[in-house]
Design a protein that fits this description.
Blueprint: H1 2-22, H2 35-38, E1 52-53, H3 65-77, H4 89-99, E2 106-109, H5 112-123, E3 129-133, H6 139-146, E4 150-154, H7 164-173, E5 179-182, H8 194-203, E6 208-211, H9 224-228, E7 232-237, E8 250-253, H10 256-265, H11 273-284, H12 286-309, E9 313-314, E10 321-325, H13 329-338, E11 341-342, E12 344-345, E13 355-359, H14 363-381
Parallel strand pairs: 1-11, 3-4, 3-5, 5-6, 6-7
Antiparallel strand pairs: 2-8, 7-8, 9-10, 10-13, 12-13
Helix pairs in contact: 3-11, 4-11, 5-6, 7-8
The structure holds pyridoxal-5'-phosphate.
Pyridoxal-5'-phosphate is lined by residues 57, 111-113, 137, 182, 186, 211, 213, 237, 239, 245, 250.
Protein backbone atom coordinates (compact mmCIF):
# COMPACT_ATOMS: atom_id res chain seq x y z
CA UNK A 1 0.00 0.00 0.00
CA UNK A 2 2.75 2.35 1.08
CA UNK A 3 4.88 1.40 -1.92
CA UNK A 4 1.94 1.81 -4.28
CA UNK A 5 1.38 5.31 -2.97
CA UNK A 6 5.04 6.18 -3.10
CA UNK A 7 5.33 4.98 -6.70
CA UNK A 8 2.12 6.93 -7.53
CA UNK A 9 3.71 10.06 -6.12
CA UNK A 10 6.95 9.46 -7.98
CA UNK A 11 4.86 9.09 -11.15
CA UNK A 12 3.06 12.36 -10.51
CA UNK A 13 6.31 14.14 -9.70
CA UNK A 14 7.91 12.78 -12.89
CA UNK A 15 4.91 13.90 -14.94
CA UNK A 16 5.12 17.35 -13.39
CA UNK A 17 8.86 17.55 -14.08
CA UNK A 18 8.22 16.54 -17.67
CA UNK A 19 5.52 19.19 -17.95
CA UNK A 20 7.98 21.73 -16.53
CA UNK A 21 10.76 20.67 -18.91
CA UNK A 22 8.54 21.12 -21.96
CA UNK A 23 7.09 24.42 -20.81
CA UNK A 24 7.87 27.87 -22.14
CA UNK A 25 8.02 30.60 -19.48
CA UNK A 26 4.49 31.72 -20.35
CA UNK A 27 2.98 28.22 -20.19
CA UNK A 28 0.15 27.42 -17.81
CA UNK A 29 1.34 28.52 -14.33
CA UNK A 30 -0.70 25.75 -12.71
CA UNK A 31 2.29 23.52 -13.40
CA UNK A 32 4.05 25.16 -10.45
CA UNK A 33 1.45 23.90 -7.98
CA UNK A 34 2.42 20.69 -6.16
CA UNK A 35 0.84 17.74 -8.01
CA UNK A 36 -0.74 16.31 -4.83
CA UNK A 37 -2.62 19.60 -4.37
CA UNK A 38 -3.56 19.97 -8.02
CA UNK A 39 -5.18 16.56 -7.85
CA UNK A 40 -7.61 17.82 -5.17
CA UNK A 41 -11.09 19.07 -6.03
CA UNK A 42 -11.90 22.57 -4.70
CA UNK A 43 -14.37 22.67 -1.83
CA UNK A 44 -17.70 23.60 -3.32
CA UNK A 45 -21.31 23.82 -2.13
CA UNK A 46 -24.46 25.44 -3.45
CA UNK A 47 -24.73 28.61 -1.33
CA UNK A 48 -27.75 30.07 -3.17
CA UNK A 49 -30.63 31.08 -0.93
CA UNK A 50 -32.96 28.26 0.06
CA UNK A 51 -36.00 28.45 2.39
CA UNK A 52 -34.95 25.40 4.42
CA UNK A 53 -31.18 25.13 4.40
CA UNK A 54 -30.19 21.89 6.09
CA UNK A 55 -26.97 21.01 4.29
CA UNK A 56 -24.18 22.69 6.30
CA UNK A 57 -24.80 21.62 9.90
CA UNK A 58 -25.58 25.19 10.91
CA UNK A 59 -28.05 26.04 13.69
CA UNK A 60 -31.31 27.59 12.53
CA UNK A 61 -31.01 30.73 14.67
CA UNK A 62 -29.04 33.88 14.05
CA UNK A 63 -27.63 35.73 17.08
CA UNK A 64 -30.32 37.81 18.81
CA UNK A 65 -30.62 41.28 17.26
CA UNK A 66 -29.66 43.07 20.51
CA UNK A 67 -26.47 41.07 20.77
CA UNK A 68 -25.57 41.79 17.15
CA UNK A 69 -26.12 45.50 17.79
CA UNK A 70 -23.85 45.41 20.84
CA UNK A 71 -21.15 43.74 18.77
CA UNK A 72 -21.61 46.28 15.97
CA UNK A 73 -21.33 49.21 18.42
CA UNK A 74 -18.08 47.89 19.86
CA UNK A 75 -16.77 47.25 16.34
CA UNK A 76 -17.61 50.80 15.25
CA UNK A 77 -15.77 52.22 18.26
CA UNK A 78 -12.53 50.47 17.23
CA UNK A 79 -9.92 52.20 15.11
CA UNK A 80 -10.06 50.20 11.88
CA UNK A 81 -6.81 51.71 10.65
CA UNK A 82 -5.01 49.82 13.42
CA UNK A 83 -4.11 46.14 13.39
CA UNK A 84 -5.95 43.97 15.90
CA UNK A 85 -4.17 42.16 18.71
CA UNK A 86 -1.64 39.57 17.42
CA UNK A 87 -3.42 36.57 18.88
CA UNK A 88 -6.77 37.89 20.25
CA UNK A 89 -5.58 37.58 23.84
CA UNK A 90 -8.75 38.98 25.40
CA UNK A 91 -10.81 36.27 23.68
CA UNK A 92 -8.24 33.65 24.68
CA UNK A 93 -8.58 34.76 28.31
CA UNK A 94 -12.37 34.55 28.20
CA UNK A 95 -12.25 31.12 26.57
CA UNK A 96 -9.76 30.00 29.20
CA UNK A 97 -12.20 31.05 31.93
CA UNK A 98 -15.13 29.29 30.24
CA UNK A 99 -13.23 26.04 29.86
CA UNK A 100 -11.20 26.31 33.09
CA UNK A 101 -8.03 25.91 31.08
CA UNK A 102 -4.93 28.17 31.16
CA UNK A 103 -5.50 30.93 28.64
CA UNK A 104 -2.00 30.40 27.23
CA UNK A 105 -3.21 26.95 26.19
CA UNK A 106 -5.95 28.51 24.03
CA UNK A 107 -5.41 29.51 20.42
CA UNK A 108 -7.97 31.38 18.34
CA UNK A 109 -8.33 31.12 14.57
CA UNK A 110 -10.23 32.22 11.51
CA UNK A 111 -12.48 29.19 11.90
CA UNK A 112 -11.28 26.00 13.56
CA UNK A 113 -10.24 24.81 10.10
CA UNK A 114 -7.47 27.39 10.06
CA UNK A 115 -6.13 25.93 13.30
CA UNK A 116 -6.30 22.39 12.03
CA UNK A 117 -4.07 23.52 9.17
CA UNK A 118 -1.72 25.32 11.56
CA UNK A 119 -1.31 22.29 13.83
CA UNK A 120 -0.62 19.96 10.91
CA UNK A 121 1.88 22.37 9.36
CA UNK A 122 3.63 22.55 12.72
CA UNK A 123 3.80 18.84 13.53
CA UNK A 124 3.81 16.83 10.28
CA UNK A 125 7.21 15.92 8.89
CA UNK A 126 7.61 15.93 5.11
CA UNK A 127 6.19 12.65 3.76
CA UNK A 128 4.96 11.53 7.19
CA UNK A 129 1.73 9.56 7.37
CA UNK A 130 -1.21 11.02 9.27
CA UNK A 131 -4.06 8.76 10.39
CA UNK A 132 -7.55 9.82 9.27
CA UNK A 133 -10.64 7.68 9.74
CA UNK A 134 -13.33 7.19 7.10
CA UNK A 135 -15.91 8.40 6.61
CA UNK A 136 -15.11 11.81 8.01
CA UNK A 137 -14.79 15.51 7.24
CA UNK A 138 -13.57 15.79 3.65
CA UNK A 139 -11.13 18.65 4.25
CA UNK A 140 -8.74 16.64 6.45
CA UNK A 141 -7.07 15.08 3.43
CA UNK A 142 -6.36 18.50 1.91
CA UNK A 143 -4.93 19.81 5.18
CA UNK A 144 -2.57 16.86 5.49
CA UNK A 145 -1.38 17.24 1.90
CA UNK A 146 -0.92 20.98 2.38
CA UNK A 147 1.31 20.23 5.35
CA UNK A 148 3.43 17.90 3.20
CA UNK A 149 2.08 14.77 4.89
CA UNK A 150 0.51 11.63 3.47
CA UNK A 151 -3.03 10.75 4.55
CA UNK A 152 -3.36 7.16 5.75
CA UNK A 153 -7.05 6.26 5.84
CA UNK A 154 -8.56 3.84 8.36
CA UNK A 155 -12.07 2.45 7.79
CA UNK A 156 -14.87 2.60 6.90
CA UNK A 157 -16.37 -0.12 9.03
CA UNK A 158 -19.44 -1.86 7.57
CA UNK A 159 -21.61 -0.13 10.21
CA UNK A 160 -19.82 3.24 9.48
CA UNK A 161 -19.28 3.81 13.23
CA UNK A 162 -15.98 5.42 14.24
CA UNK A 163 -13.36 2.71 13.55
CA UNK A 164 -11.83 2.88 17.03
CA UNK A 165 -10.48 -0.68 17.15
CA UNK A 166 -8.98 -0.23 13.69
CA UNK A 167 -7.39 3.08 14.75
CA UNK A 168 -6.00 1.41 17.87
CA UNK A 169 -4.43 -1.27 15.64
CA UNK A 170 -2.92 1.40 13.37
CA UNK A 171 -1.51 3.23 16.40
CA UNK A 172 -0.06 -0.01 17.77
CA UNK A 173 1.62 -0.63 14.41
CA UNK A 174 3.34 2.77 14.53
CA UNK A 175 2.54 5.12 17.44
CA UNK A 176 4.41 8.07 15.93
CA UNK A 177 1.83 9.04 13.31
CA UNK A 178 -0.39 12.03 14.19
CA UNK A 179 -4.07 11.14 14.34
CA UNK A 180 -7.11 13.25 13.39
CA UNK A 181 -10.25 12.09 15.15
CA UNK A 182 -13.61 13.75 14.51
CA UNK A 183 -16.02 13.24 17.40
CA UNK A 184 -18.92 13.73 17.04
CA UNK A 185 -18.09 12.65 13.55
CA UNK A 186 -19.20 14.61 10.51
CA UNK A 187 -21.06 13.23 8.52
CA UNK A 188 -22.25 10.30 10.66
CA UNK A 189 -22.98 11.97 14.04
CA UNK A 190 -21.29 9.09 15.88
CA UNK A 191 -19.15 9.97 18.93
CA UNK A 192 -16.41 8.11 20.80
CA UNK A 193 -16.56 7.56 24.55
CA UNK A 194 -13.82 9.48 26.37
CA UNK A 195 -12.37 6.17 27.64
CA UNK A 196 -11.84 4.99 24.04
CA UNK A 197 -10.05 8.23 23.19
CA UNK A 198 -7.98 7.94 26.33
CA UNK A 199 -6.84 4.45 25.28
CA UNK A 200 -5.71 5.87 21.93
CA UNK A 201 -3.88 8.68 23.73
CA UNK A 202 -2.11 6.23 26.00
CA UNK A 203 -0.75 4.31 23.02
CA UNK A 204 0.02 7.30 20.79
CA UNK A 205 3.40 9.00 20.70
CA UNK A 206 2.20 11.84 18.44
CA UNK A 207 -0.42 14.59 18.60
CA UNK A 208 -4.08 13.60 18.59
CA UNK A 209 -6.13 16.32 16.89
CA UNK A 210 -9.63 15.88 18.28
CA UNK A 211 -12.07 17.82 16.11
CA UNK A 212 -14.91 18.59 18.49
CA UNK A 213 -16.78 21.08 16.28
CA UNK A 214 -20.10 19.57 17.41
CA UNK A 215 -19.02 19.10 21.03
CA UNK A 216 -21.79 21.26 22.49
CA UNK A 217 -24.41 18.79 21.21
CA UNK A 218 -22.63 15.71 22.49
CA UNK A 219 -23.10 13.85 25.78
CA UNK A 220 -19.34 13.37 26.17
CA UNK A 221 -17.00 16.04 27.49
CA UNK A 222 -13.42 15.46 26.36
CA UNK A 223 -11.91 18.46 28.13
CA UNK A 224 -10.86 16.52 31.26
CA UNK A 225 -8.51 14.47 29.04
CA UNK A 226 -6.43 17.59 28.35
CA UNK A 227 -4.88 17.72 31.80
CA UNK A 228 -3.82 14.06 31.63
CA UNK A 229 -2.58 13.94 28.03
CA UNK A 230 -0.35 16.76 26.88
CA UNK A 231 -0.41 15.54 23.27
CA UNK A 232 -4.19 16.06 22.96
CA UNK A 233 -5.33 19.07 20.91
CA UNK A 234 -9.04 19.78 21.22
CA UNK A 235 -10.53 21.86 18.38
CA UNK A 236 -13.77 23.78 18.86
CA UNK A 237 -15.70 26.26 16.77
CA UNK A 238 -18.08 29.21 17.09
CA UNK A 239 -19.60 28.17 13.72
CA UNK A 240 -22.18 25.71 15.02
CA UNK A 241 -23.72 25.99 18.50
CA UNK A 242 -22.66 29.65 18.74
CA UNK A 243 -24.41 30.81 15.53
CA UNK A 244 -21.25 32.48 14.21
CA UNK A 245 -20.41 30.51 11.03
CA UNK A 246 -20.50 33.79 9.11
CA UNK A 247 -17.87 35.38 11.36
CA UNK A 248 -15.25 32.62 10.94
CA UNK A 249 -14.07 31.93 14.45
CA UNK A 250 -12.71 28.79 16.07
CA UNK A 251 -10.24 27.83 18.78
CA UNK A 252 -8.21 25.03 20.20
CA UNK A 253 -7.30 23.95 23.71
CA UNK A 254 -3.92 22.33 24.18
CA UNK A 255 -0.78 22.27 26.31
CA UNK A 256 0.36 25.90 26.81
CA UNK A 257 3.93 25.05 25.77
CA UNK A 258 2.66 23.52 22.55
CA UNK A 259 0.49 26.58 21.89
CA UNK A 260 3.60 28.78 22.28
CA UNK A 261 5.06 26.85 19.33
CA UNK A 262 1.86 26.89 17.27
CA UNK A 263 1.76 30.68 17.64
CA UNK A 264 4.94 30.83 15.58
CA UNK A 265 3.20 28.99 12.72
CA UNK A 266 -0.14 30.80 12.87
CA UNK A 267 -0.21 34.15 11.10
CA UNK A 268 -0.22 37.14 13.42
CA UNK A 269 -3.49 39.14 13.33
CA UNK A 270 -5.37 36.09 11.99
CA UNK A 271 -8.62 37.17 13.65
CA UNK A 272 -9.98 40.63 12.82
CA UNK A 273 -11.64 43.08 15.22
CA UNK A 274 -15.18 42.04 14.21
CA UNK A 275 -14.77 38.31 14.81
CA UNK A 276 -12.91 38.72 18.09
CA UNK A 277 -15.58 41.06 19.46
CA UNK A 278 -18.34 38.72 18.23
CA UNK A 279 -16.69 35.83 20.09
CA UNK A 280 -16.27 37.84 23.30
CA UNK A 281 -19.89 38.99 23.30
CA UNK A 282 -21.23 35.56 22.39
CA UNK A 283 -19.35 34.10 25.36
CA UNK A 284 -20.79 36.80 27.62
CA UNK A 285 -24.25 35.66 26.47
CA UNK A 286 -23.34 32.02 27.08
CA UNK A 287 -26.46 31.25 29.15
CA UNK A 288 -28.71 32.13 26.17
CA UNK A 289 -26.58 29.96 23.89
CA UNK A 290 -26.89 27.07 26.33
CA UNK A 291 -30.70 27.42 26.16
CA UNK A 292 -30.59 27.28 22.36
CA UNK A 293 -28.43 24.17 22.46
CA UNK A 294 -31.10 22.57 24.65
CA UNK A 295 -33.71 23.49 22.02
CA UNK A 296 -31.70 21.71 19.31
CA UNK A 297 -31.19 18.70 21.56
CA UNK A 298 -34.95 18.61 22.19
CA UNK A 299 -35.66 18.72 18.46
CA UNK A 300 -33.17 16.03 17.44
CA UNK A 301 -35.46 13.14 18.52
CA UNK A 302 -38.43 14.85 16.81
CA UNK A 303 -36.50 14.84 13.51
CA UNK A 304 -35.44 11.26 14.11
CA UNK A 305 -39.04 10.13 14.76
CA UNK A 306 -40.31 11.97 11.70
CA UNK A 307 -37.65 10.45 9.42
CA UNK A 308 -38.00 6.94 10.82
CA UNK A 309 -41.76 7.20 10.51
CA UNK A 310 -41.31 7.87 6.80
CA UNK A 311 -39.12 4.81 6.29
CA UNK A 312 -35.59 6.24 6.56
CA UNK A 313 -32.85 4.44 8.43
CA UNK A 314 -31.60 7.05 10.90
CA UNK A 315 -28.11 6.70 12.39
CA UNK A 316 -27.56 7.59 16.07
CA UNK A 317 -26.38 11.21 16.34
CA UNK A 318 -24.50 13.18 19.00
CA UNK A 319 -24.49 16.29 16.79
CA UNK A 320 -26.96 18.82 15.38
CA UNK A 321 -27.51 16.78 12.23
CA UNK A 322 -28.75 13.35 11.25
CA UNK A 323 -27.40 10.87 8.76
CA UNK A 324 -30.14 8.89 7.03
CA UNK A 325 -30.25 6.10 4.48
CA UNK A 326 -32.94 5.35 1.91
CA UNK A 327 -32.91 3.27 -1.28
CA UNK A 328 -34.06 6.36 -3.24
CA UNK A 329 -31.72 8.84 -1.52
CA UNK A 330 -30.45 10.65 -4.62
CA UNK A 331 -33.92 11.11 -6.09
CA UNK A 332 -35.26 12.29 -2.73
CA UNK A 333 -32.46 14.83 -2.36
CA UNK A 334 -33.19 16.33 -5.79
CA UNK A 335 -36.93 16.39 -5.16
CA UNK A 336 -36.38 18.05 -1.74
CA UNK A 337 -34.27 20.76 -3.37
CA UNK A 338 -37.06 21.42 -5.89
CA UNK A 339 -39.41 21.88 -2.91
CA UNK A 340 -37.12 24.31 -1.07
CA UNK A 341 -35.43 21.89 1.34
CA UNK A 342 -31.68 21.52 0.91
CA UNK A 343 -30.25 18.27 2.30
CA UNK A 344 -26.69 17.12 1.73
CA UNK A 345 -26.10 14.13 -0.51
CA UNK A 346 -23.23 12.32 1.22
CA UNK A 347 -23.57 9.10 -0.79
CA UNK A 348 -20.13 9.69 -2.31
CA UNK A 349 -18.40 9.34 1.10
CA UNK A 350 -16.77 5.95 1.72
CA UNK A 351 -19.34 3.58 3.23
CA UNK A 352 -22.24 6.01 2.85
CA UNK A 353 -23.95 4.72 -0.25
CA UNK A 354 -27.62 5.90 -0.36
CA UNK A 355 -27.09 8.36 2.51
CA UNK A 356 -28.21 11.95 3.04
CA UNK A 357 -27.39 14.31 5.90
CA UNK A 358 -29.80 16.89 7.31
CA UNK A 359 -29.23 19.56 9.96
CA UNK A 360 -31.62 19.62 12.91
CA UNK A 361 -33.51 22.71 11.80
CA UNK A 362 -36.26 24.86 13.26
CA UNK A 363 -39.83 23.73 13.89
CA UNK A 364 -40.78 25.35 10.57
CA UNK A 365 -38.00 23.42 8.82
CA UNK A 366 -39.23 20.21 10.40
CA UNK A 367 -42.83 20.71 9.25
CA UNK A 368 -41.78 21.76 5.73
CA UNK A 369 -39.40 18.80 5.42
CA UNK A 370 -42.03 16.35 6.58
CA UNK A 371 -44.62 17.76 4.12
CA UNK A 372 -42.13 17.62 1.25
CA UNK A 373 -40.99 14.10 2.09
CA UNK A 374 -44.55 12.76 2.30
CA UNK A 375 -45.31 14.16 -1.15
CA UNK A 376 -42.05 12.86 -2.65
CA UNK A 377 -42.46 9.36 -1.22
CA UNK A 378 -46.01 9.24 -2.54
CA UNK A 379 -44.75 10.17 -6.01
CA UNK A 380 -42.11 7.47 -5.78
CA UNK A 381 -44.68 4.85 -4.77
CA UNK A 382 -47.12 5.90 -7.54
C1 LIG B 1 -15.82 18.28 11.38
C2 LIG B 1 -15.82 19.75 11.24
N1 LIG B 1 -14.82 20.46 11.75
C3 LIG B 1 -14.81 21.80 11.68
C4 LIG B 1 -15.85 22.47 11.05
C5 LIG B 1 -15.98 23.94 11.11
O1 LIG B 1 -14.96 24.61 10.82
P1 LIG B 1 -14.90 26.18 11.08
O2 LIG B 1 -14.70 26.38 12.55
O3 LIG B 1 -13.71 26.53 10.28
O4 LIG B 1 -16.17 26.79 10.59
C6 LIG B 1 -16.86 21.78 10.45
C7 LIG B 1 -17.88 22.49 9.70
O5 LIG B 1 -18.64 22.02 8.92
C8 LIG B 1 -16.86 20.38 10.57
O6 LIG B 1 -17.87 19.67 10.07
Amino acid sequence: MKDERASGERGEAAAAAQEGANATPSADPRRFVRPQLRALAAYHLDLSPCPHKLDQNEVPFDLPRRLKERIARRWLARDWARYPDFHSDELRRRLGRRHRWPWRGVLVGNGSNELLGVVLEAVVRSGQEVLIHLPSFGLYKAFVLRAGGVPRFVGPRPDVRLPLAELAAAVAEDPRRPLILCSPNNPTGDAAEPAAIERLLEALDAPLLLDNAYGEFCRYDYRPLLARHRHLILLRTFSKAWSLAGQRLGYLLADPGLVDELIKVKLPYNVGHASAIAGEEALAAGAAVDRRIRVILGRRPQWKRMLEGLGFEVFPSEANFLLVRHPQAARIQRALEARGVRARDVSGYPGLDLCLRLSVGSGRDLRATERALRAILEEIRA
